[in-house]
Specification:
105 residues; mainly alpha; 0% strand
Length: 105
């Protein structure tokens, strides 16, 4: 009798751990996707900023227009980064609601 109880306990524990591990893995995959998206965005904006700074150095003067372009690119990056984070958080919340059968209000 004790053997069956121990076997059932181990089976239930294994199922719970498998389910939790699976959900944890899916959440990590979403985070990896978000970080890849932000990395690509950062590289793209960095290249644009480098181009503008390089132009300013070649001219041996930093014009207001060039400085504004650099700040604009930085602002665009920060906004797109926040959008990527928000999309990732929404996906995570949807997945949690689906797993626990919680309806959004």
């Amino acid at each position: 009798m004790e053997f069956y109880l121990a076997t059932e306990t181990v089976t239930v524990a294994a199922i719970v751990l498998f389910t939790v591990g699976n959900q944890f893995q899916k959440r990590l995959e979403l985070k990896v996707e978000k970080h890849k998206e932000i990395k690509l965005l950062a590289e793209e904006k960095l290249n644009e900023i480098i181009k503008h700074v390089s132009t300013a150095f070649n001219d041996e003067a930093i014009l207001d227009e060039e400085f504004t372009l650099v700040l604009t690119q930085l602002d665009v990056f920060l906004r797109k980064k926040e959008i990527a984070r928000t999309k990732s958080n929404v996906k995570i919340l949807k997945r949690i609601r689906k797993v626990f059968n919680v309806n959004a209000r």
